[in-house]
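Researcher: Next entry: Mce-associated membrane protein (Sinosporangium album).
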Amino acid sequence: MSGEWEPGRGGAVRSSPVATWVVALLAAVALALGAAVGVMWMDLGRLQATETLGREALAAARMVAPDMLSYDYRTIEQDMSRAQGQTTGDLTRHYRELAQTLVPRAKSQQAAQQATVSGAAVERVEGDRVDVLLFMNIEVTKTPEGEKEPRHEFMRNRARFVMVKSGSRWLVAVVSTLLGTA
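Model: Predicted structure:
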């Protein structure tokens, strides 16, 4: 800082206007940077919470997808009940309605469907709602009406699960596939 010596004032240095401006500017920059760091710190907390929700929902979706999309004609009532226990909202009603047609058809065709998750990713997180994209391998064995030998099919498919948090559990609220939404 530059200044002038003023005798009789106890050796005080009088500041020049330029020095005052520099100090004021530095103080303003420091305040702005402090505010920016505060905003970023709060945003970091929100991002970390979102990431945690996404990880939890992804793990839950990977775990329940095989139960939701697999069945065996010998245990189909229990399979449908187990799957329905992982659902919420309209999807619960849909599974009840689906059981009315799927159970007799699966038994008459001696059908079994085994789904496994080959990959998964979080698409979007909004509050306690997480969209998870699942890549599935599905093996189907059935004996169509009029045939004596069972058919075996292997398909690769994808499904989107909308996961919602209910208490400490993640439940499936919507299932959509290439065939439509349930």
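Model: Note for the record: Residues 159 and 179 are 9 Å apart (CA to CA).
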